[in-house]
Amino acid sequence: MSDGHGSTPGAPGTPPGWASNQPPPYGNTPGSPWTAPGPASGAPESPPQGFPQAPPPGPGQPYGQAPYQQPYPQGPYGAGGPPPAMRPGIIPLRPLGLGDILDGAIKLMRSNPRSVLGLSAIVAALAAVPLAIGQASALDTSLSSILENRNAAPSQQNIIFEQSSTLISYAVEIIAVTLLTGVLTRILGRAIFGGKMTAGEAWTLTRSRVPTLFGLVVVTLVALLVPLALVVGLFLALGAAGAGAAVVAVAGTVAVLAFVIYAFFVSTRLALAPAAAVLERRGVVSSLRRSWQLVSGGFWRTLGILVLTQIIAFLIGQVLAFPFVLGASFLALLGGGSTGAQILSAILIAVGVTLGSMIAYPLRAAVNGLLYADRRMRSEAFDLVLQTAAIEQRRQGWVHASADDLWDPAVTPSGPARYGSPDQGAPWSHS
């Protein structure tokens, strides 16, 4: 008998309230893998294998009433949660969390130690040598002053020598770290797909981007140093005008605080420019605009991760360098100002600074590169492009060098729909 809704109660495979002229909700057809259990398929009404079963009723409990309310897993993915993301390389191919980014940076160093740590050690040693010489000289002078005359001040010559060594070290570090960042970013781009790259191959691919990388450094320094010069000029102007101490303190505090906020804002907005310059082969202005665009919508998260990375890198450098600096202090103390003691102190300081920097440099470069990949996955669904490439690479059994081209939006401007299409001549086209 009809219930007035166009359905026939008790019809095989049709739940109550379902119209008789509509197909069954489970696709009940002979041999269908989605056939619903019940009279239509001849299967008993029991949960699938692997799902929790209701235990027999206890004393005083009606038969068929389970002691819990949800015998079946709830949610769109069942009991196991969402399926794990593909991970052919150092990161999962999905938007990244903080743990994924830090873990990916560590995996980059572990997966390709010869290229990553070897290059970082060379760069760190170049920057550490002049700094170590200046610090060893200053350390020897300070300890000699303490032992001989506690009121003696370091000579003007020693101060100039120490400051000159520090400036030379900073200049070498800027040049070397700029080159290292470009090379490590190129290695990172391949490592995300699970591939490796030698230092020579990475340099060959990065060499053409060196002018752009130095252009980014110059623009960033100018953007930070010009406001800093204005703050210094403000202090000089207040001093020349004979302003009171209270006025100088208030004005100086406001100016310094404004500069710090400005520096954090600009450096965060432009932090992804080197990755865009290397992986997308953009120019200076285009890379800056690209970084500004990618950081939009994720500024505070990007800032927090960058600050945390700087803190971690600083602590690693200090912990690794401390035993060597302590040993250099003892040598300078026991050596009594001899030339041999100064040389050994400088060597120990250089070794300690090198060890700390060879971990800190790739950590910072990797975090910046992974933040770039994360922002593209979040704002452009770039993870779908990466997953498509990973599937094709798994089918072929190797990571082709043309995987580097996938980072360029000109190759895949429309994401996965255009990616790998045969008419594009793409290296990942399906045959």
Automatic annotation (TrEMBL):
Alphabetic keyword roster: Membrane, Transmembrane, Transmembrane helix
Segments forming domain DUF7847: 99-365
Keyword Oxidoreductase appears in the UniProt entry: no
Transmembrane parts of this sequence: 116-133, 167-189, 210-237, 243-265, 298-331, 343-367
Domain of life: Bacteria
Ranges where the record places region Disordered: 1-88, 409-431
Low complexity bias spans: 1-20, 62-76
UniProt keyword annotation of DNA repair present: no
Sequence ranges of Pro residues compositional bias: 45-60
Protein name: DUF7847 domain-containing protein
